[in-house]
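Below is a typical protein record.
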Amino acid sequence: MTNTLHIVAIWTHILGIALFVGPQFYFAFAWMPASRRLTDLSARATAMRTMVHRLAYLGGVGLFLILVAGIYLVATFRDYYHLPGGSELGFFDIRYGVVFTIKMGVLVVMLTLNGLHTFVVGPRQLRVMEAEAEGRDMTEARKKVRIQSMVLSIGALVLTLAIMVMGAMLNTVQWSLQ
């Protein structure tokens, strides 16, 4: 039963990661370039708002799955891997504890960048796009918010990839449990 729960938790964690990271790549590398071909700014803004909301829900479900499975995995790692030294072995006495702590710190920074993009810069970018669709000149505002958007989204994506590397390190048992 322990192996089954562990397998389900890892699968759920990976599914959550796919649901969280997939929309980021799709949005950055597929939707954004394709949306620029929409010459009707009003239609582009409407489509952008729809895409953002749907992908945000998908990413939110992914974050929930990551959280639930991750809590289970970290809570049971000591028993699952039958660590030598038992309860006397401290969390930071093995690489797992150190890498996990760094991973959680990077996660907080990445979630902060994503939150700023999702709740501050992204909506500002949509408002600028909608103002342009109404015929107002928003050239300077568009440039400024686009740079902010790119810095936040690229930064968050790079940190997400670093978190994924650390996750792979944690699952390399013979290395991480030393």
In short: Residues 42 and 133 are 5 Å apart (CA to CA).
